[in-house]
Amino acid sequence: MIRVLLADDQTLVRAAFTMLVESARDMAVVGQAGTGREAVRLARSERADLVVMDLRMPDLDGIEATRLIAADEDLAGVKVLVLTTYDTDDNIVEALRAGASGFLVKDTRPAELLDAIRTVAAGEALLSPGPTARLIERFLRSPSMPVSGGPDRLSEREREVLTLVARGLNNTEIAESLGLSPLTAKTHVSRIMGKLGARDRAQLVIVAYESGLVTPGSM
After folding, report:
1. In sequence order, what DSSP letters do the residues of 141-197 get, joined into one string?
2. CA-CA distance, 60 to 21, in Å (whole number)?
3. Long-range CB contacts (within 8 A, 24+) of 47-50
4. Is Cytoplasm given among the entry's keywords (predicted)?
5. Distance between CA atoms of 206 and 99, rounded to whole angstroms?
6. Confidence category of residue 83, pLDDT binned at 50, 70, 90
7. Is the pLDDT of residue 152 over 70?
């Protein structure tokens, strides 16, 4: 059972998302937050597996709330899925740097929201390649996230794997592309995260773009 916390300042949005999430047999809503500060508090008290986080909230915005959750060692297993209007939210890359594991457009279809929750809860980054490339191209000049090294620290195979991660491929797709087993692909991804000091696959995408290993428009 995936324990979901919903954070959005609009009551009707939270109510609609609650009905949707509760309709899935493998999910349960364990809390609702109307502010970023409340989201952090409930993440700590309700032990959610995943927070669906709106970026624009009073008291504490979604980016700062995400940063606090990601920095809390007691919440190490909590994933954050950011909600964005895409065309107007200029902070999505900062949210990824803050520790979010992906982003979702607010007008997405209901089934896609449920799939997104499952994807992020399972440890995969939810990053659609096209929008990700455009967003990163637009905001690359903002301050870099702290990492312990760049792709120059990686082996040639690891650089290949990182390139495919940045292009939005999951472990199975990476394995098929490089002729590896899914377990080997997963091992490579884990080793890359360790070498680069990245929290998850979302941050690996940022590193790949900021280092120039992958460039917007190359996918």
Report:
1. TSPPPP-S--GGGS-HHHHHHHHHHHTT--HHHHHHHHT--HHHHHHHHHHHHHHHT
2. 24
3. 47/3, 48/3, 48/4, 48/5, 48/78, 49/2, 49/3, 49/4, 49/77, 49/78, 49/79, 49/121, 50/2, 50/3, 50/4, 50/5, 50/78, 50/79, 50/80, 50/81, 50/117, 50/120, 50/121
4. no
5. 11
6. confident
7. yes
Sheet with 50-54: list strands edge to edge.
27-33, 2-7, 50-54, 79-84, 102-105
Q: Look up the CATH architecture of domain 2-125.
A: 3-Layer(aba) Sandwich (3.40)
Out of 25-29, 84-88, 152-156, 207-211, pick the least confident. Answer: 84-88
Q: Tokens standing for 6?
A: 């919903």
Domain boundaries, given as residue ranges, for the chain: 2-125, 127-219
Three-state DSSP state, 89: coil
* pLDDT at residue 80 tops 60: yes
Question: In the chain, how many H helices and how many E strands?
Answer: 10, 5
2-125 and 127-219, same CATH topology: yes
CATH of 127-219, one of 1.10.8.110, 3.90.660.10, 3.40.50.2300, 1.10.3660.10: 3.40.50.2300
Amino acid at the residue 199: R
